[in-house]
Amino acid sequence: MRRLQKMPTPQGKGAGQTATVKLPLGPTYHTLFIRAKTAAGVDITAANWKNEIGDVRVSVNGDTRIEADAAYLVADSLFYGQTLVNGVLPIHLSQPWARTKEGEENTAYGTSQNMASFTLEIDQINALTNFEVFAVQSEARPFGAHLRVQKFVDQMTLTGTKEVSDLPRGAYNLLGAHINSASIDVVEVLANNLKVHESDKAIRTAEQKTIGRVAQAGFTHIDLMSGNQLGNALPMALNDFRLKLDFTAAPNSYEIYTKSIQGVV
Predict the structure, then answer these.
(1) pTM
(2) What's the pLDDT band for 265 if we cut at 50, 70, 90?
(3) Which residues pair with 29 in a beta bridge?
(4) CATH of domain 148-262
(5) How many beta carbons lie within 10 A of that of residue 215, not counting itself?
(6) Domain spans of the chain?
């Protein structure tokens, strides 16, 4: 069965500090929940998480496997049709929206083997109260295929097409990319010079609605997990991979979050 467990108390609590939670090894982790209230004792709303905490990192053996700020984590949950509860910020390792049990659980974090440390770090902007971490766990399995979220910062000071060609390639599958700018109309995705995705904002939103996605204000979502099946994600063992983004307003600095399923290496 799946268990809901309270994790060790975060160390390093305080405004401007990084809180660290050493997650116990052994079980498989499906979801991490950050439970917190503001300094005034009020449950933090979805819109206010970005004002209370900054970046959140999940590390395995000292290597960051998930890096995202609070605004992205909120948008990520809502995009996949999840309902947020005030005072709780989820980090999904499994994907409950996937169409099969295997697809849902393939991205979970097994910790029984191949792992010496498993750590959650939370950069606090303000002091928090009722600050705890909980986890949904299941039976032990080794660390293997898992969800990875990477954060890339880019620049675009003009309107028009921005070509992004420096995202990592390798032996993994790309589930999607989420960009914290809503000023992108046409998107093209090219893999080895083959166009595998072309859409404008309306078409993207319509196609994503068919599988229960909810586009979030302030973001452009490129969802490559067609039909909610991990097997339909884009293999990234490529010689060339490019995103072409048509900006209708210059974002200056913006962030690209990639979601992928990767192995141990």
Answers:
(1) 0.93
(2) low
(3) 109, 137
(4) 2.60.120.730
(5) 17
(6) 3-144, 148-262
